[in-house]
TrEMBL record:
CDD domains hit by this protein: LysM
Superkingdom: Bacteria
PANTHER family: POTASSIUM BINDING PROTEIN KBP
Protein's recorded name: BON domain-containing protein
Domain LysM stretches: 93-144
Length: 151
């Protein structure tokens, strides 16, 4: 799936992590699992401020959400997502939130003018990592699924 970049100074504060370094692998795993994600066949390795994911996930969506749950935490600047999806579909794009963004605005940017109402697709694609469509923050990385795909 590739290398994703994150703002290491923002995101979830996980026990053992700081801006200087991510939390230990077992704590990162707990963070993803608390969102209902299955990491039973995934391995997590931390090298400096980079996290490497390997193994397998149930689906492309699950693999992407695992990377986001871990990457959107303090201390992580990059996630190398090498998870293999058992049920592969077209991969999502990833979007880094900037100041002033809303999910509507992101939908208009990614899907084209007149598609702001498709923000619900982006919100659904990021559940349970997002609890409310109005609670996004600068530096956060979100999944943006293709318009033709289901979340």
């Amino acid at each position: 799936m590739g290398l994703l970049s994150f703002a290491k100074s923002v995101g979830a504060k996980i026990f053992g992590g700081s801006e200087a370094a991510p939390a230990p692998p077992d704590e990162l795993k707990k963070e993803a699992e608390k969102h209902g994600l299955d990491l039973s066949k995934a391995d997590i390795k931390v090298e400096g401020d980079k996290v490497i994911l390997s193994g397998s996930a149930l689906s492309t969506e699950e693999a992407e959400k695992i990377a986001l749950a871990i990457g959107n935490s303090v201390g992580v600047s990059k996630v190398q997502n090498d998870l293999v999806a058992a049920n592969a579909i077209t991969e999502s794009k990833f979007y880094t939130v900037v100041s002033g963004d809303t999910l509507w605005k992101i939908a208009e940017t990614e899907y084209g003018k007149g598609h702001g109402a498709k923000y619900t697709l982006i919100f659904e694609a990021n559940k349970p990592l997002l609890s409310d469509p109005d609670k996004i923050y600068p530096g956060q990385v979100l999944r943006v699924p293709p318009l033709t795909a289901t979340v």
